[in-house]
Design a protein that fits this description.
With 247 residues, the protein is mainly α. Helix content is 86%, strand content 0%. It has nine helices and no strands.
């Protein structure tokens, strides 16, 4: 178990919410002699819950900003082969190379600063992969099954009348709604794949510019402009992927 930083505990106690709770409790207990005990107890309860909330919220934020485990991401890339696997492997390798290049050469400071976005992307990769593969597993066989059921219901509607026809028609509408939602999931997964390929292309473009500048032992203003454009594109694409996959 990871050791809890004392700074996190202190911040949980000493925050603005707790300051107001203590202040209001002291003021109210001073002016209300008859109910002083009840006010102090209520203030203590509020202080406790406020401290617990601040503590767990701080831990959650801290975990979101911790460096990702490269081994975990590598295992995710290789544990299962699907449409995400090839692009995920290449993305991870490209990010590793760029991070190393930015450390080795101070001239590429803008790339080094950009690594914050790359690290954020690395942190969301496990959840991204998990959501994507859950979606793929959900879709497996469902489109064919639902399409077949719709076709069967349409045949039954054509051959029936009265109450039976109305019942079949109601079931048909429900199945069509299910199919629509399934198609939306399929579309989201395809869009995710497309965005990831676009992000890979962006990183590869940055790599090319950085490598070319390294060989020339200089970086031109045009190179800097091109890198900044590509980094902006990467950041926007990352936001799109997070939105698509509900991360």
């Amino acid at each position: 178990m990871k050791r809890i930083a004392s700074k996190t505990i202190l911040n949980s106690f000493f925050n603005i919410a707790n300051f107001f709770i203590v202040s209001i409790t002291l003021v109210l207990s001073a002016i209300a002699d008859a109910q002083r005990s009840s006010i102090i107890i209520l203030g203590g309860i509020l202080f406790f819950f406020s401290t617990m909330y601040a503590f767990f919220f701080s831990k959650q934020n801290k975990s979101l900003h911790e460096d990702s485990d490269p081994t975990e991401i590598d295992e995710l890339a290789y544990e299962k082969h699907d449409n995400l696997t090839p692009v995920l492997k290449k993305l991870v390798k490209a990010m590793e190379r760029l991070k190393q290049k930015s450390k080795d050469n101070p001239r590429f400071l803008m790339v080094s600063n950009f690594m914050d976005d790359v690290c954020n992307f690395e942190q969301m990769i496990p959840k991204l992969v998990n959501n994507y593969r859950k979606g793929k597993e959900f879709l497996k066989g469902r489109i064919y099954q639902t399409t077949t059921e719709i076709s069967n219901l349409e045949s039954k509607i054509a051959a029936s009348s009265g109450t039976a026809k109305e019942t079949y028609a109601s079931s048909l509408e429900q199945k069509k709604q299910v199919l629509k939602e399934i198609e939306e999931i399929k579309s989201s997964l395809a869009e995710c794949e497309s965005k990831l390929h676009y992000m890979l292309s962006t990183l590869q473009q940055v790599e090319t510019i950085v490598e070319s500048s390294s060989l020339k032992n200089e970086i031109s203003n045009q190179d800097i402009d091109n890198i900044n454009v590509q980094l902006d594109v990467f950041s926007e694409s990352m936001k799109d992927v997070m939105n698509i996959m509900k991360i």
